Structure formats: C-alpha cells, structure tokens
Amino acid sequence: MIFATSLSLLAGGTAIADVAQAVQDQILPGLSDFADATLDLADVAVTDCDVAAIQPAYDRAFDAWLQIGHLRLGPAETAVISIAFWPDKRGTTPRALAQMIADRDPIAEAAADYAQASAAARGFFALDALLFDEALSVDEDEPAMAYRCGLIATVAADLAAQADQLDRDWRDGFGQTLTTAGQPENAVYLAPEEAMQALYTQLMAGLEFTADQRLGRPLDSFDQPHPRRAEAWRSARSLPNIRASLEGQRALAAALSDAPIPVTQAAFDAAFAAADRVVDPGFQDITDAQAWFRLDVLRQRVQAVRTAVEAELGAALGVSAGFNSADGD
Known about the structure:
Keywords: Signal. The protein has 329 residues and is mainly alpha-helical.
C-alpha cells in the first residue's frame, strides 16, 4: 500500500527517540494484546456464530489491531494484507466469500488450510462481511447457514494464527532488529537513527492513512460523498477504528520522545474532540451536509495532528520529508 508521505534524516538533527522504550513498552505489549484478543475471538466463534455473541470479542480484537496496525514494517509489511484487506476498491471480499458459500468450498474446513485462501477472504474484513453483510445471509437454507457458521469460525481461527505469528515474529526477531540498530550484526538498520526513523515513518504514514483513506475515501467531495467507502461501515466501526488508531499513534509519539510534546498532545486532543461530534459511527449519514462537515472537521484535525508531529517531534528527532514512508526503513 502506497503512502504519499516520505521521510529522511536531517543532517545535524538531534535524535531523542527511545526506540527500546517504544518497542518494549508500547509495540510488544500491543502485539501481545492483539494475539490474546484474536484468540478469545476464535474461542467464541467456534461455539456460536450469532452476531450478538461474537461482536464484543470482535470489537476487542479489532481495537487491539488498530492500536498497532499502523506499524507496517518488518513482518507486518506483508501480514497486514491478509489481516486487514482494505481499502477493497473492487468489492473483492464479499464476492469471494459469496462464491465460497455457494460452492461450499472445502478450504474453510480447517484454519491451517485457510492460510492458502485469498487475502480478500481472510482477516477482519472477511469477518466484517460474514457477520454484518445481509447479502451473505439472506435466504440462507440450512446447509448454507451451517457452512457460513463454519466459515466464520475458520476465518477467526486463521486470524488468531496470524496474530500469534506476528507477535512471535516481532518478539523473537524484528523487535530485536530495531533495538540493536547500529550493532555489527544488524544488517537492516546500520545506525540507531535508522530504527528511530523507521518508527517515525510509520507514525506519519499511519496518520496520513487515516486522513486520506479512512476519512478521505468516504468524504470524497461535498457534492458526491461515498458512505460505503468507509472502513468497516457494515459493523459501524468506521469511527471506532479511527479512535483506536489515533490512540495507538498517540502512544507511539509519546514513546518516541523523552521530552514533553504539548503541541502534539493538544492536536490529538482536538482530533478526539472532533470525533466526539460525529453522530453516525459508520459514516452512513454523510449525504447530509452537516454530517459531512462534521466528518471533514475530523479529517482536518487528523491532518493537524500530522502537522504537529512533524513540527514538534520530527524537528526534535531530526527527520523530515524525503523518501516513501511505506518503505519503513
């Protein structure tokens, strides 16, 4: 996924980042929470496929993912594709799932086999469609209902396996790669500043993704908004996803600095205040002028967070625009 933002080190900048603190206190605990939450989700899904039974665990797992989902580097660079296949500009996920249900595709019988399924049919957005898209359950006969329930359990188990693998890959490998930057055996980050820059890059790219994709895609233009382009609109998680992502990014920004960042913190406060004024958490009301403007204010506040981070934290760390932020190194 391509982000427009790019970053590079400024000559003579002073790095005040504590990469080890960010990894140990924020990133690894977040990954552990994600793994635990998806395991709980899988445990629920295997016993009950009813939305009311699954949704609390589903929401907890999605919140946990959003806390660290902006970290698209190392093992997460490829894992994110099948954990969170979005934006889905062609509607691939519901089509793939509908075909599987119609064919009673046997790949859904075991989570280990399901790792071979299309990324569009895996992860959170597959569950979102299976649980909340009425088109996948309307006029179901009993065999189709039973298959869909089994598919929900398999997708949840596959997601838990992905979360566990991502947690272990960071804990047993990539986390150490970041914290040993500059040491002779580290061939990825040749200086400590490079690891710091990689995390800062992910912070900036994540804020950009929220402004341009999570908000920009459904807002589009005042004359032509697109409510169904919102992330997780079926489950009305569009706004909760933004909140959870901002919470994770705020924690990362604080971890990257060993000094107060009051301008950045105030910008985050303003963004959360704007989120409080959004009425429909699924953004399905934005064809109304007032609803559109409320969401656009939130977009502006997220953009302001990014500006504050760049001016306050970026300047202190000695980083600024320079290369593609999706690279992460």
